[in-house]
Prior knowledge:
By secondary structure, the protein is of the alpha+beta class.
Amino acid sequence: MSDSIALAPLEAALTFARTTDGRILAVTRYQSGVVTGVELTALAATPSDDPIDLYNRLGREALEAVIRTGSPLAEVPVESLGPPVNLTSCHIAVGTNYRDHAEESAVTGSPFLFPKCVTPTGPRSDIPAGDGLLDFEVELCLVPLLPLGPADAAQGGLILGNDVTDRAVLMRGVDLKDPQSGRGFTDGKSAPGYLPVGDLFVIPRDLHAFVAGLILQLSVNGVERQRAPVTEWIWDLDEILARARARRGVAWTWREGTARLAFDADGAIPARTLILAGTPAGTVFQGVPAGDRRAGVLRWILSGFSGPVAGRVIAAYVDRSRAEKVYLQPGDRVTIRVDGLGALGNRITA
C-alpha cells in the first residue's frame, strides 16, 4: 500500500483522523507513512467526542480557523490511526450499482438495496475468513452528521469501507429468480469483522463536486484488483437515499430474524449510519462458470432429482472454489487507497 495520500485543500474539505488512543487530528498532510495535522483533542467536551461531535458543536468555519492557525503540528504514524469516527451497526447498502460489476456477476436489472448489520472495525483490523468464501468490495460511504430527514438531500461526511462478503453464505440465501430482492445479502455481509473502514473522515464543502474527483482502488497482496471513478455508479447518493426511503419498513431475512434499512421513528436516517454506495468490477466473484453448472446438474441427477437443482449448482461452485482456494486466504492482505479519502489495509486471518 502506498504510504502517501493526496489530500483536498482545506477550503474544499475538512479531513480528520483519530489515533487508537483517542487523539483527534485535523489532517493537513499524509506523507511517507506519517499523518501531520492540528490536534483538536482539547476541543472535545467529553472523552468520547469524535470529529462529528466537534463539527456539529463548533461548525465548519470555527474549525477551519483553528486548523489554519493551529500550531505546533502533531505527527502520527499512519499505523497508529483507528476508526476516525464512531458509527452505528445498521447500515444501508446497494448491490450492483456499477454496470461492469453487475455484468461480471451475471446480475441483470437495476441496482438494489439491502441492510448490512455489523459494527465497523478499524483501518488495520484483521478480517476473519473462517470457512467462508471471502470476497472484497471497495466502497465509498456517506455518513450523515445529523439525522437525514425524509426530504433532505445527500449531505455529511465521507469514509472508505470494504464491504467484505462471504459468497458461500450469500449464494445459499439469494433468491435466484429475483436477486434484486436483496435476499441473502445481509447474511453474507454481516459477520463480525466484515466492515473495516478507512483511516480518514472527510467533510467536503461541496459534496457532489468532491465525489466527482474520487477514484476507487483496491489491491490484494500488492496486485490491483479494482479501480474505477466513483461517478461510474448507476445511482448517485441522492438516488440511493430516494430508493432507500421507498423501501423503508421492508424486512429482509437475517439469521433467525429480520433486518430493515436504517430509519428512525420519524423516517430519518440516523446520524453515523453508513450509506455504502456500491463497488466496481474486479471482485473475486465473477458469476457461476458453465463447468460448475454442469457439475451441479449432474449431482442433481445422481441424487435422484432431490431438491432444487440451483442448490446443487451452488454447492458445486462452493466446493470447487474452496478446493482451488479461489477466494481470499489467511495471510492475504487487502489494501484500499483513495486520494482525498485515505486508506485501509487489512490482513485475512483464519
